[in-house]
Design brief:
Aspartate Aminotransferase, domain 1, Aspartate Aminotransferase, domain 2, 2 domains, binds pyridoxal-5'-phosphate, transaminase activity, 5-phosphohydroxy-L-lysine phospholyase, lyase activity
Length: 473
C-alpha cells in the first residue's frame, strides 16, 4: 500500500484537499499518522509506539488475531444479506441474549450506533403512538438527523431544540445542581425528569421514549447516583414512554462489575430497548438493538419489512461472536475490574497531590478525571486539559477530553490495558502536572508545542484558546 510510504505532510495535504474540514483530526496542530495497531498500542509511520487510552472501539485490542481470523475465514466462504438462512446471525443473537435479561429477547442488527438509536426511536414511536423524546443534557446519540435532534451536545451548536425534544439535567453529582452533599440526589435528579415530562404534557405533548447512555460518557464520564435510572423509568413508563439504554460506549464488560452498564441499577432494572455499537465489532462496523417481544411485535404489526443491506451479515456476526469469545477466554471483564480499580486508586492519589484534579470517578475501564481551576466554583480547567493531553501525546500517550467544559480526561482504553500501562500513564501525568504547577508558579504561559514547519495554527498560547467543539467517539 503506497499510503504507508507517503510522508505525513503529504497525507495531511491530501486530506485537507479531499476531505471535509468537518472531519476533525485529533491534535490538529500536529496530527498523528497511524499505520498499525496491536493490543493497546498504535504505531505511527516512523514505528513510534503510542499507548492508546482512548479507543473503546478496539474493545479486545487492536487487530486481535481471533477477531481478524474470524472475519477472514467467513470472508473466504460467504458474505451476503440476512434474507437467507444462516447460522451466524442466530448463533450471535443467541449469545447476546445470554448476556441480557430474558425480557430483551428480540435482536435487530445494523452497522453503526447511530443506526441502532434511530431504529430504537422508530420502534418507541410505533409502540407508544407518541412522538416526543426526553434526553439528558449534553448527551450525544449519533450523527443521523433524527439523532442530532435528540443530542444536546450537537443541537446546541446548530439550529436549536425541536419542540418534540425535552432536556433533563445531567445527573452529575460533582458539578450539577444536586451534589455529593445532597441527601438523595437520585430522587432529586429523577424528579427533574418527572418535571420535564409534566411540562411537556401540559403543552399537549406525549412522550415516546427516554434516551440515555447508561453511564453518560460524552457528557464527561458521569456516574449517576444509584437508583436514578429506576426512578426515571417509572416516570417515563407512567407517561406511556419507553426507556432506551444507549450502551454504545459503555457495554460489553467495560465497567467491570457487570457486562452491561445499566445492570449497575440492580437485577430488577430492565430497559425496554438496549442499543449497542462501537466495541461490539472491535472496529468492524456492527451494531445491534435488543428489545422485548411486545415492542418488536408493534413494529412488525405495521407489515413493513425491516431490511438492512449489511446488518447481520455472516462476516459481521462472525466478528461479533469472536469478540464475545475473546472477552470470555481472556476474562477481560474481570481484568477491567482489576486494572480499573488500580488506575482509579492511583489517579485518586494524584488528586491529593495536584489541586487541578477536582474529581476522579469511574468503574472498570471507564474513568474520568475532572480538571478544575478552583475548588469552590469547580470551574472547568479547559485550556489546562488541552495542554495536558497535548503533553501526554508528546510522551506517546493518547488520551482524550470531553464534557460540556471540555475539561474531563476520559480513560476508555482497549480492555487489554494493563497495570503496567496504568502505572506508566499515572507517572507521566504526575510529571506533567508537577511541571505545569512549576510553570504557573513562575508565571509562564502554558503553550502547546508545534513542530517546526507544522502546517497547523501558529504556536499559540493554550490559555484562552477555544477548543474545537463537538468531538465524539
Ligand atoms: C453514546 C453514543 N451513542 C451513539 C453513537 C453513534 O455511534 P456511531 O458513530 O457508530 O454511529 C456514539 C458515537 O460516538 C456514542 O458515543
Amino acid at each position: 500500500m503506497a499510503a504507508d510510504t507517503r510522508a505525513k505532510a503529504v497525507t495531511l495535504d491530501l486530506r485537507r484537499r479531499l476531505l471535509s474540514s468537518s472531519c476533525r483530526l485529533f491534535f490538529p496542530e500536529d496530527p498523528v499518522k497511524i499505520i498499525r495497531g496491536q493490543g493497546q498500542y498504535l504505531y505511527d509511520e516512523q514505528g513510534r509506539e503510542y499507548l492508546d487510552c482512548i479507543n473503546n472501539v478496539a474493545h479486545v485490542g487492536h487487530c486481535h488475531p481471533t477477531v481478524v481470523q474470524a472475519a477472514h475465514e467467513q470472508n473466504l466462504v460467504l458474505n451476503t444479506n440476512s434474507r437467507y438462512l444462516h447460522d451466524n446471525i442466530v448463533d450471535y443473537a443467541q449469545r447476546l441474549s445470554e448476556t441480557l435479561p430474558e425480557q430483551l429477547s428480540v435482536f435487530y442488527f445494523l452497522n453503526s450506533g447511530s443506526e441502532a438509536n434511530d431504529l430504537a426511536l422508530r420502534l418507541a414511536r410505533q409502540y407508544t403512538g407518541h412522538q416526543d423524546v426526553v434526553v439528558l443534557d449534553h448527551a450525544y446519540h449519533g450523527h443521523l438527523s433524527s439523532l442530532i435532534d435528540i443530542s444536546p451536545y450537537k443541537f446546541r451548536n446548530l439550529g436549536g431544540q425541536k419542540e418534540w425534544v425535552h432536556v433533563a439535567p445531567l445527573p452529575d453529582t460533582y458539578r450539577g445542581p444536586y451534589r455529593e452533599d445532597h441527601p438523595n440526589p437520585a430522587e432529586a435528579y429523577a424528579n427533574e425528569v418527572k418535571h420535564v415530562i409534566s411540562s411537556a404534557q401540559q403543552k399537549g405533548r406525549k412522550i415516546a421514549a427516554f434516551f440515555a447512555e447508561s453511564l453518560p460518557s460524552v457528557s464527561g464520564q458521569i456516574i449517576p447516583p444509584a437508583g436514578y435510572f429506576s426512578q426515571v423509568a417509572e416516570h417515563i413508563r407512567r407517561a406511556g414512554g419507553l426507556f432506551v439504554a444507549d450502551e454504545i460506549q459503555v457495554g460489553f464488560g467495560r465497567i467491570g462489575k457487570h457486562f452491561w452498564a445499566f445492570q449497575l441499577e440492580g437485577e430488577d432494572f430492565v430497559p425496554d430497548i438496549v442499543t449497542m455499537g462501537k466495541s461490539i465489532g472491535n472496529g468492524h462496523p456492527v451494531a445491534c438493538m435488543a428489545t422485548t417481544q411486545a415492542v418488536s411485535r408493534a413494529f412488525e404489526a405495521t407489515g413493513v419489512e425491516y431490511f438492512n443491506t449489511f446488518g447481520g451479515n455472516p462476516v459481521s456476526c462472525a466478528v461479533g461472536l469472536a469478540v464475545l469469545d475473546v472477552l470470555k477466554t481472556e476474562q477481560l471483564q474481570a481484568h477491567a475490574t482489576n486494572v480499573g480499580s488500580f488506575l482509579l486508586e492511583h489517579l485518586t492519589q494524584q488528586k491529593a497531590k495536584h489541586p487541578i484534579i477536582g474529581d476522579v470517578r469511574g468503574t472498570g475501564l471507564f474513568i474520568g478525571v475532572d480538571l478544575i481551576k478552583d475548588e469552590t466554583l469547580r470551574t472547568p480547567a479547559t485550556e489546562e486539559a488541552e495542554y495536558l493531553v497535548s503533553r501526554l501525546k508528546e510522551n506517546y500517550i493518547l488520551l482524550s477530553i470531553d464534557g460540556p467544559g471540555r475539561n474531563i480526561l476520559k480513560f476508555k482504553p482497549p480492555m487489554c490495558f494493563s497495570v503496567d500501562n496504568a502505572q506508566h500513564v499515572v507517572a507521566k501525568l504526575d510529571d506533567i502536572l508537577t511541571d505545569m504547577e512549576e510553570k504557573v508558579r513562575s508565571c509562564e504561559t502554558l503553550r502547546i508545542k508545534h513542530p517546526p514547519g507544522s502546517t497547523g495554527p501558529g504556536c499559540r498560547a493554550a490559555a484562552g484558546n477555544r477548543p474545537s467543539r463537538s468531538r465524539t467517539g
